[in-house]
Amino acid sequence: MQQLVQGIHRFQREIFSQDKKLFETLVEGQHPLALFITCSDSRIDPSRLTQTKPGELFIQRTAGNIVPSYGSNLGGEAATIEYAVAALKVRDIVICGHSHCGAMAGILKPEAVNKMPAVRAYLQYAEATRRIVEENYAHLTDPARRLMLTVEENVLVQLENLRTHPAVAAAIARGELKLHGWVYKFETGEVFTFDPDQNHFVPLAESASPQSEPHRSLPPI
Amino acid sequence: MQQLVQGIHRFQREIFSQDKKLFETLVEGQHPLALFITCSDSRIDPSRLTQTKPGELFIQRTAGNIVPSYGSNLGGEAATIEYAVAALKVRDIVICGHSHCGAMAGILKPEAVNKMPAVRAYLQYAEATRRIVEENYAHLTDPARRLMLTVEENVLVQLENLRTHPAVAAAIARGELKLHGWVYKFETGEVFTFDPDQNHFVPLAESASPQSEPHRSLPPI
Amino acid sequence: MQQLVQGIHRFQREIFSQDKKLFETLVEGQHPLALFITCSDSRIDPSRLTQTKPGELFIQRTAGNIVPSYGSNLGGEAATIEYAVAALKVRDIVICGHSHCGAMAGILKPEAVNKMPAVRAYLQYAEATRRIVEENYAHLTDPARRLMLTVEENVLVQLENLRTHPAVAAAIARGELKLHGWVYKFETGEVFTFDPDQNHFVPLAESASPQSEPHRSLPPI
Amino acid sequence: MQQLVQGIHRFQREIFSQDKKLFETLVEGQHPLALFITCSDSRIDPSRLTQTKPGELFIQRTAGNIVPSYGSNLGGEAATIEYAVAALKVRDIVICGHSHCGAMAGILKPEAVNKMPAVRAYLQYAEATRRIVEENYAHLTDPARRLMLTVEENVLVQLENLRTHPAVAAAIARGELKLHGWVYKFETGEVFTFDPDQNHFVPLAESASPQSEPHRSLPPI
Question: Which positions are annotated as binding Zn(2+) (chains A, B, C, D) (predicted)?
Answer without folding.
Answer: 39, 41, 98, 101
